[in-house]
Structures are given as C-alpha cells and as structure tokens.
Amino acid sequence: MGRREKMLLEMKEITKQFPGVLALDNVDFNLNEQEVHILVGENGAGKSTLVKILAGVYEKYDGRIYIDGKEVTIKSPKNAQALGISIIYQEFNLIPHLTVAENIFLGREKVDSFGHISWKEMFKAARKNLKDLQVDISENALVKDLGVAQMQMVEVAKALSCNSRIIIMDEPTAALSAKEISNLFRIIKKLKKEGISIIYISHRLEEYEEIGDCATVMRDGKYIKTLDIKDSSREEMIRLMVGRELSNIYPKVEVGLGEEILRVENFNRGNVLTDISFNLRKGEVLGIAGLMGAGRTELARAIFGLDKIDSGKLYLSGREIKIKKPKDAIKEGIGFITEDRKNEGLILPLGVGTNITISSIREFTRGFHLDLGKEKKEIIKYIEKLVIKTPGIDQIVNNLSGGNQQKVVIAKWLMTNSKIFIFDEPTRGIDVGAKYEVYKLIGNLIKNGAAVILISSELPEVMGMSDRIITLYRGKLTSEFGRNEFTQESILNCATGGKKDG
Questions:
Q1: Predicted TM-score (pTM) above 0.90
Q2: What is d(CA 103, CA 97) in angstroms, rounded to the nearest whole number?
Q3: Cα(125)–Cα(119) distance, rounded to whole angstroms?
Q4: Which residue of 111, 202, 276, 430 could cross-link 403, Cys pair, CB 3.0 to 4.6 Å?
Q5: Which residue has the higher pLDDT, 397 or 204?
Q6: Angle, to 10 degrees, between the axis of helix 119-132 and the axis of helix 148-161?
C-alpha cells in the first residue's frame, strides 16, 4: 500500500459493550509515524468509541494496545496524555472565562521551586506554542472572546504543550469556514512534518484526499478495510461505509409545484435581517445559501418565532399570520429542524420516545390522562419509518449517534403533521448513509404536498436537493436562482456580495 513502515500504534481485537449495544466487535487499528489516518464510517460505526478508548475516556474494554511495540494500559485521560495521546473533541474542552494560556496549561500549570504558579513562564510557553503554529492569537485573550476556529487552535496548542505524538481530531471542520478549514489543513500538514501522527474523523469525504494518507473503514462496530487514499475512489469508500451502492448521492424528487404556501414580506431585524422577501410553494424545496453570518439561521428563527422581528409580514396560504413564539408556528404547521440539535432540538437526558412526542403530546391526551398505548404505537411507527437505531423507546437520546439524534428531531416534527419544514444544516455531523436517508425523507415530504426550506453550508447539497435557491449576504437577499440556473460559481458569487449574471 505504500504506507510508512514505522508503526507507532497498534490496537488489537478491541471490543466494547454498553448495555444492549455491542459498540466495538474485535476491531484492529494501526497508526504509523508521521501519518494522517482517517477513521471512516457511518454514525454508530464505532469510530468515537474507538478513539475514546485510546484517549482513556472508557477504561473497561477487551483487547490490547501497543505503542512502539510495547503493550500499554490506558485507564484515564491523564494516563493517555502521559503516553503522548491527545484528543480534540467537536465540543471543545475549554474554560471560557480563563485566558488562552491558562487553558493550554490547565491542570499542568508551570510552577517555580517553591511550588507557586509561574505565570510568566506559563504565558511565555503558551506564546511560543501559538507562534509555532503560526496563528494570530494572544495568550492573554479570554477564550470566551475567541471564534470557533481560534478555539480549535488553542486545543491544538494544548495538545502540543503535552508533547503529544498522537493527536485525535473528531469532526474538526464541522463549524469552520472554507478559509478556516484551509488554515487547519496547513496546521495538520505542519504537525505531520514535525513527526506527529493524526487520527482524523470527518464525514466530509472531500477532505480525505486533501490531508489523508490512508483510511480505515468501520461499519456496525466492526473493522472493514484499510485503504490507501491515493489508490481509492470516493465511491469505493461510500460502498464500504454503508455496505451497499448509493446510486445517487442527492436523490432529488421532482414533483409538480403547487400553490404558494408561505410568503415572507419585508422582514427586518436590527442589522441582522434587512428587507427580506420571498415565497415558498407546496412540493418545493427552497435552498438558502450564504456564508456563516449571512443571516440564514436568523431568518429561520424569525419565521419560527424564536427571534422577534422589527417589521415585516408573514402569510400562510394567502392568510396573514402572526407568529410571536414557536408555539404559534407549531400551531400553524411549521416545523424547525434546528442546526443546534443538542441544545435546541432535543432534551438529551430524556428517552427517544419522549423526545419524539414532546411537541405533539396533546394528540395523546384524553382529559387529564395520557393514552400511553397510542403514544407508544406512534413512537414505534416513526422509529421504524426513519430507521432510528436504538435499543428501545426509553433509550436516553444522548446515547445515540449524531445521525440517529437527527432522525429523532425529524420524527418529532413529522408527528406534528407540519406542512412546512425548515431544515437548518440537517446533515451537519452525520455520515453519508444518514445524509442519504435525510434526503430521501425530504423527497417523501414534498411528494406528500409539504414544502421545505433547506439551509446548508454545503453548496453541492443545496444545489442537489433544491428546486430554487436564494442567496443571503450580510442579512440581505442578493439573488434567486431557478434549478436550470444553478452553477457553483454564480451562487458563490452572489453569496459573497456579487451580482447575478444576466
């Protein structure tokens, strides 16, 4: 395969069981020195469980781990750190009200001969780490004042300060702009040259060719195959991940568009939304494209009643409606699949069933009593319909994979019998197989006469699934494209403030 010969890490026959779930089943994984090794698989494939064992998060497991050919036992994150292993999670492990330097050396503060913290030495070392990464962040800055990309660089600096030989990155580009992703890739290539090995988890297949040396594919908790990136195709990787061929990545359903179902007129909100007007028809998927900060999510929140507008009107099937809070939107048949599913779409400590029925609980009440039989029947129907992988309806939703959590959010809105569905970044952080299922679901919705607003940072996704696209730039609607007008260049041009050709 042309891979480097010096092996740094071997994980052999790793098995991990949770109550009712075999998360890992005799998985082997090898990592060579100075290698970027991509860990590939659908949500629930076992990727995160495998790296959490390596990072010391899960102490109890079966199997053996070797570093430099010597067997090691990893019982805690501190133990992993001592072995030169660091992990950067998608949700950062930083203290917002502390400085960058304090976060970098948290729990490992530099002390003088008297045992007192040497602030001068600590800030000096933090400054050196940041300089080595060639990032423009002050060691004195408070983490709460940093952007997402800067926080990620602090996490990388923290890993370097531990003299890490292995850095695990879990979905590092999920919330980054194209420019920020480019800078992250520069850092990864720099780390690799300096002798550090990277285990990289991402659902964005296009990133693999950019930075990866090889990829290990996992499916249903099992090791499937290790591929050399340069000798592999995207199609082969998808087939190995999902265990079947996906004939069309974006299965767009064509239906005859019906009458206007929603009209937004002159929405204004501070300097976030400026005079935005558009309409939506039955059976239509309307894509909204724009860069981060363009106002896409803010527009969705305003329609759904989460954010109050300064002025503007909203019409449903020609009738003006007033939506002052989400309860009003739900009553009018509008569902919002939020970008932040963990904080806004789900109640993580509660069960799958409770999360599915929480917005439609009145459908199962008779007087003061809840019809538990009817509720359970409906919950099971939607679990089967959306192929939600869960041991049971009472499974804590926080224990599900990202893709299955997303399906629970969608099931919740399907149960309300909504006529309009707003999908905000519906496939962020979920794998290619789960994405395909979300796309098919969108197709089923419009076939049944519903209408969909699709917001996504992935332009191929918006173009692949939409009948029409509008672009936003700094809170203003800049253009509208019919399906026959879609080109990546023209849409990106309007999403960055340019004008539509012709």
A1: no
A2: 9
A3: 10
A4: 430
A5: 397
A6: 110
